[in-house]
């Protein structure tokens, strides 16, 4: 998400930053609602559990569908990101496969990266990868620092003025901002793992403040450096010959490789539950993980547009899973929908605005993808 915030800002203009803070506030509030839902029943362990408590088996199914599709497309986005950044480092690379068959650099890099990732999706124990991927906060800081360094000391500067507002790209901006706050499905798991659960809201405040500052800073500096010429990933604008640029690019290359398996493992585990227990669990992990990886490669090759795809994820899935569903589940579980008060009005307004953004944002994203094909 952090790499696409400058593109989001360029799409919507400077005033779209207000919407970044508005989305952050709504996402923070919905995170608190998830906590309240979990406090109502000690048996809740996962996000689908909240959906089931609120709306029964259908609620569990709906929450699961949105959660797993989001994870799947985020994993696909990782492959596109890798292909884009490697092509930026090696712009003239092509791959010859057999006689007369040539694969473009980006497509070839996506396939190569998928082969590197393949062994990680065979693992049942992802504890090592989880420690590596936990360095994501550090990686974000390194990326932001490298971008600022490139602008300040590598001759690019912060001279671009940008546009105050661009209504044509506002839906794209909103969708990409929403994609930055798509972690809500993991909140229940984090909450249950905490020893001092009463501190969850404080942790949430700190995390949202730090993340929002990082997102806004990256967006502002990237937009000031490259203006309307900013690409869907800010690293694609960085001069690949500069050391600071290479630091940013290499940092963004490592993270997706370690996080891919963490994204698809919940999907693998969900599919495994549909098979009889007589099947070998290790074989199922390898079989399902491999086929999931192959399918994401095909999607990444068919729709190799990171900004457009993540805009679709943000509009259709992130807003739904991170804002609308927590509000709906809380209304049902708490029962406050039975009495009219300020909280009910506020939550209903969030739901209505969220639904409108899902409809129009998804429409704009799909049109953008079709236009790029």
TrEMBL record:
| Pfam families to which the protein is assigned, alphabetical | Aa_trans
Q: Which UniProt keywords apply?
A: Amino-acid transport, Membrane, Transmembrane, Transmembrane helix, Transport
Concerning InterPro entries, the annotation shows: AA_transpt_TM
Bilayer-crossing residues are 12-34, 61-81, 101-121, 128-149, 169-191, 203-227, 247-271, 283-306, 312-331, 343-366
**What biological process terms from GO does the record include?**
amino acid transport
Q: Tell me which GO cellular component terms the UniProt record holds.
A: membrane
Give compartment(s).
Membrane
What main location does UniProt list? membrane
| Record's keyword annotation contains Membrane | yes
Q: Per the database record, which ranges form the Amino acid transporter transmembrane domain?
A: 1-366
What protein is this chain from? Amino acid transporter transmembrane domain-containing protein
State the species of origin. Gossypium klotzschianum
């Amino acid at each position: 998400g952090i790499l696409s915030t400058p593109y989001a800002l360029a799409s919507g203009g400077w005033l779209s930053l207000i919407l970044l803070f508005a989305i952050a506030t709504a996402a923070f509030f919905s995170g608190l609602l998830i906590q309240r839902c979990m406090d109502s029943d000690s048996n809740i362990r996962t996000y689908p559990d909240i959906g089931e408590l609120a709306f029964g088996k259908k609620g569990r199914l709906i929450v699961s569908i949105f959660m797993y599709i989001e994870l799947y497309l985020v994993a696909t986005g990782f492959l596109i990101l890798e292909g884009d950044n490697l092509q930026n480092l090696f712009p003239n690379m092509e791959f010859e496969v057999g006689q007369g068959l040539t694969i473009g650099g980006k497509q070839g890099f996506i396939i190569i990266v998928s082969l590197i990732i393949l062994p990680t999706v065979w693992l049942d124990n992802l504890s090592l990868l989880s420690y590596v991927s936990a360095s994501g906060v550090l990686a974000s800081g390194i990326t932001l620092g490298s971008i600022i360094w490139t602008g300040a000391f590598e001759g690019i500067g912060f001279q671009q003025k940008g546009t105050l507002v661009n209504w044509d790209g506002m839906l794209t901006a909103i969708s990409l901002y929403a994609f930055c706050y798509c972690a809500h499905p993991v909140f229940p798991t984090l909450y249950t793992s905490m020893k001092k659960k009463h501190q969850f809201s404080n942790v949430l405040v700190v995390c949202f403040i730090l993340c929002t500052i990082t997102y806004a800073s990256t967006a502002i500096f990237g937009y000031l450096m490259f203006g309307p010429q900013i690409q869907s990933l800010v690293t694609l604008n960085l001069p690949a010959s500069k050391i600071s640029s290479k630091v940013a690019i290499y940092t963004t290359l490592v993270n997706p490789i370690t996080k891919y398996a963490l994204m698809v493992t919940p999907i693998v585990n969900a599919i495994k539950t549909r098979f009889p227990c007589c099947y070998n669990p290790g074989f199922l992990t390898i079989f399902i993980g491999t086929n999931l990886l192959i399918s994401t490669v095909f999607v990444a090759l068919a729709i190799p547009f990171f900004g457009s795809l993540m805009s679709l994820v943000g509009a259709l899935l992130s807003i739904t899973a991170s804002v609308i569903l927590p509000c709906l589940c809380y209304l049902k579980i708490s029962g406050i929908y039975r009495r009219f008060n300020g909280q009910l009005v506020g939550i209903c307004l969030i739901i209505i605005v969220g639904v409108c953004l899902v409809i129009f944002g998804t429409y704009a994203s799909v049109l953008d993808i079709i236009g790029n094909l």
